[in-house]
């Protein structure tokens, strides 16, 4: 039992999302990930004297789309500010961000954790530019003989989504980040790849005695590169703070880093306050005025979002919450499912195959849905072969694996391999006759009242026909033959 149980955990998340625009936020350099160091740069993103930034309209559009999808209010008037600090990955020694007038405010997100639904408030969304990357000769900047700076990422557009301190457990924090990721994927504004840094999360964590309203002193945790890391880091930090409080100590307001290998958070620096950054309005950019008509246009262009989509699958197509949850957990999978059921009228069967064989094969090979070789129409065709009794479920799995491997059509595989189910009474009667003649002991057992013996005989007929016999018909024919003896 942990020592944290007399405290309530309070968590707020700050999520940085790299937007997938083609060019940077204030210049026309490409945003592409990777590339030779310092090749995606120009005087604007390097902050050379005499240049002027110009806002990429797509960045504003993506930020507004994210705000609408997260139920925010979009500001008709907002502006950029300079956030001043020195670090070698920031060539201008200030980051262009938004301070007191962000583009979006006051949203919310529905999550489900440990079987409970909950609404998490979204404080704000603001636009900003990313910094560059440092490559240290050692493990940290302080312990290195030298560090190299790569400015390809400098000026890549980001939105920062700040939540209210509404989460109360590591599970809720994880559920929030997962839900946020899915929504951003649905609205197509980011690659949301945590491992490539296009989705980055910081957590503000504090404890307060149960029943007390006032927040405790918080620590900010950085450097969590996966959902699992977020969950583990929160759990560690809660225990660490509880121990200090239990011993009568007090929490230091600071920024800490999650050390994945050791499974601990370590102190990085004392936490900055906003006034440390000496924010002031960015004089080189005009304020942003957003027309309500344009916002409405963007609102109308939003796709069906995960919760709506899940609701449709449950209420209209009669899927279980569980199946609908898996399918709508990825936009690509949800769209694939829609294409299958457009050609096949039994959504439940389609969902079973999609969440069963299809995901199993994708996971086994580490593939994305979009990399699958099976055309959704062929997927549907296979299901129809089963429904029409032309192939058995067992044979269908074999055909499916072949479709998955080669992208071949199910009809071609069935024909080429001669897998069509045998439903011809005459042909099957002959096999039944052969099996009955060859297994006198089982026949005797059956006649003596051991009804289970028929199962063995059915198995023998299936074996003889390499699994192609129609099992229902085999049963019927065997029963008739045995009863006639
Ligand atoms: Zn540039």
Structure explained in plain terms:
- Helix 9 runs antiparallel to helix 10.
- Helices cover 39% and strands 20% of the residues.
- A hairpin with a 2-residue loop joins strand 6 and strand 7.
- The mean pLDDT is 93.
- The chain has 15 helices and 16 strands.
- The chain is elongated, with a radius of gyration of 30 Å.
- The longest helix has 20 residues.
- The strands form four sheets. Strands 2-6-7-10-1-11-12-13-14 form a nine-stranded mixed beta sheet. A three-stranded antiparallel beta sheet has the order 5-4-15, with no helix packed on it. A two-stranded antiparallel sheet has the order 3-16.
- The protein folds into three domains: 292 residues, no CATH class; 114 residues, no CATH class; 59 residues, Orthogonal Bundle (Arc Repressor Mutant, subunit A).
- It has 485 residues and is α+β, with helices and mostly antiparallel strands.
Going across the biggest sheet, name each strand in turn: 2-6-7-10-1-11-12-13-14
- Shape, please? elongated
Number of domains: 3
**Largest beta-sheet details:** 9 strands, mixed
Radius of gyration, in angstroms, nearest whole number: 30 Å
How many helices? The count is 15
Q: End-to-end distance, in Å?
A: 69 Å
> How confident overall, as mean pLDDT?
93
Provide the helix percentage: 25-40%
Count all strands and give the number.
16
Q: What ligand species are in this complex?
A: zinc ion
User: Strand share of the residues?
Assistant: 15-25%
Unreliable residue stretches = none
What is the quaternary state of this protein?
Answer: single chain
Structural class designation: alpha+beta
């Amino acid at each position: 039992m942990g020592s944290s149980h007399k405290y309530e955990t309070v968590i707020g998340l700050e999520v940085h999302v790299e937007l997938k625009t083609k060019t940077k936020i204030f210049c026309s350099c490409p945003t592409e990930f990777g590339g030779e160091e310092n090749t995606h740069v120009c005087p604007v993103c390097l902050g050379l004297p005499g240049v002027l930034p110009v806002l990429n309209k797509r960045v504003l559009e993506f930020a507004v789309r994210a705000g609408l999808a997260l139920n925010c209010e979009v500001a008709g008037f907002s502006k950029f500010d300079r956030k001043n600090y020195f670090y070698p990955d920031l060539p201008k020694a200030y980051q262009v961000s938004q301070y007191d007038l962000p583009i979006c405010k006051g949203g919310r997100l529905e999550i489900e954790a440990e079987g409970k639904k909950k609404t998490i408030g979204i404080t704000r969304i603001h636009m900003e530019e990313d910094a560059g990357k440092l490559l240290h000769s050692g493990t940290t900047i302080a312990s290195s003989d030298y560090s190299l700076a790569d400015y390809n990422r400098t000026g890549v557009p980001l939105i920062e989504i700040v939540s209210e301190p509404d989460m109360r457990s590591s599970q809720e924090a994880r559920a929030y980040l997962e839900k946020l990721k899915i929504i951003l994927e649905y609205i197509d504004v980011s690659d949301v790849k945590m491992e490539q840094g296009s989705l980055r999360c910081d957590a503000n964590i504090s404890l307060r005695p149960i029943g007390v309203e006032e927040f405790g002193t918080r620590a900010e945790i950085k450097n969590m590169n996966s959902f699992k890391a977020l969950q583990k880091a929160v759990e560690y930090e809660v225990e660490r703070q509880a121990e200090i409080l239990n011993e009568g100590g007090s929490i230091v307001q600071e920024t800490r880093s999650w050390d994945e290998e050791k499974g601990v958070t370590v102190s990085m620096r004392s936490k900055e306050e906003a006034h440390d950054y000496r924010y002031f309005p960015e004089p080189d950019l005009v304020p942003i005025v957003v027309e309500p008509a344009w916002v409405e246009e963007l609102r109308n262009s939003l796709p069906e979002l995960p919760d709506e989509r899940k609701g449709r699958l449950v209420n209209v197509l009669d899927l279980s919450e569980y199946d609908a949850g898996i399918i709508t957990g990825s936009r690509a999978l949800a769209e694939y499912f829609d294409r299958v059921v457009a050609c096949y009228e039994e959504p439940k069967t389609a969902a079973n195959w999609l969440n069963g064989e299809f995901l199993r094969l994708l996971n086994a090979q580490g593939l994305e849905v979009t990399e699958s070789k099976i055309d959704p129409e062929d997927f549907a065709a296979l299901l129809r072969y089963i429904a029409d009794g032309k192939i058995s479920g067992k044979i269908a799995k074999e055909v499916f694996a072949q479709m998955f491997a080669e992208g071949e059509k199910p009809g071609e595989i069935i024909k080429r391999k001669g897998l069509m189910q045998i439903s011809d009474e005459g042909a099957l009667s002959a096999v039944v006759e052969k099996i009955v003649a060859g297994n006198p002991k089982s026949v005797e057992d059956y006649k003596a009242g051991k009804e289970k013996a028929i199962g063995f005989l059915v198995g023998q007929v299936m074996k003889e026909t390499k699994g192609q016999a129609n099992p229902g018909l085999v049963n019927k024919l065997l029963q008739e033959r045995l009863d006639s003896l």
